[in-house]
């Protein structure tokens, strides 16, 4: 079993809520929120914070993390089960800028509809809709 963790990061651009997706510079050049493999001895939250800094340059202090709001995805990569935990996080530092690592070649801030097109996997689309509904219904 492979494990990974990350954040679905949103920011406000009234009247829109925008989500951060990163495009890999390898493989199929697919788009996902910042996330990565859980290293030995790490909690998933520590992994999510580490990978988000590494992949997007966004730090813990730039974010408001919703510890109780998460989705867990299960899929197979080359036949091996993988579990990915995403927490919801809000970009609260308006001056913070996304800085990519070599692992990614592009990033976009997208509204829900656009993000669901880029995030082509049904379970990731469902997670984005879940988070969006949480943000709207709880008036975050
Ligand atoms: N093809 C490749 N060529 C060169 N280097 C590579 C490589 N793949 C990985 N690497 C290396 O691995 C490192 C990544 O390490 P990490 O950054 O630590 O880990 P990750 O985000 O979980 O990796 P990955 O991109 O593989 O995961 P995902 O599940 O999105 O994606 C894994 C697979 O699952 C698919 N997938 C993603 N989300 C899915 C979902 N929700 N449902 C079904 N399939 C999904 C993707 O299309 C993809 O095929 C990179 O530094 C890179 O060097």
Automatic annotation (TrEMBL):
InterPro entries: NUDIX_hydrolase-like_dom_sf (IPR015797), NUDIX_hydrolase_CS (IPR020084), NUDIX_hydrolase_dom (IPR000086), Nudix_hydrolase_domain (IPR051325), Tetra_PHTase (IPR003565). One of its GO terms (molecular function) is bis(5'-nucleosyl)-tetraphosphatase (asymmetrical) activity. Keywords: Hydrolase, Nucleotide-binding. The keyword Ligase does not apply. Belongs to the Nudix hydrolase family. Residues 1-132 form the Nudix hydrolase domain. Pfam families: NUDIX (PF00293). It comes from the Eukaryota. One of its GO terms (biological process) is AMP biosynthetic process. PANTHER family: BIS(5'-NUCLEOSYL)-TETRAPHOSPHATASE [ASYMMETRICAL], DIADENOSINE 5,5-P1,P4-TETRAPHOSPHATE PYROPHOSPHOHYDROLASE MUTT. Signal peptide: none annotated. This is Bis(5'-nucleosyl)-tetraphosphatase [asymmetrical]. The keyword RNA-binding does not apply.
